[in-house]
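Course assignment 3, question 2. Fill in each field.
Student: A.L.
Task: Predict the tertiary structure for the chain below.
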Amino acid sequence: MKTTGGVGVNVILEMLANVNLGHDLKLLAREGRVIVVGSRGDVTISPRDIMSRQGSIRAFADMGHHRS
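Answer field:
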């Protein structure tokens, strides 16, 4: 937060959500987004961290599925 002057970041690309997601939510700017592209386990967060910022969490999984 210090780096952004207390504003927070608009987008976080998260590749290890099971470790970092809870911390990520505290760094978001108002209406910021976390894009989850990787996780190696269950995730526990405090919903208030995202609700207070009116942010969103989006998830993307390739999982080896490809369109022909």
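Instructor remarks: Strands lie at 9-14, 28-36, 56-59. The chain has a mean pLDDT of 92.
Grade: pending
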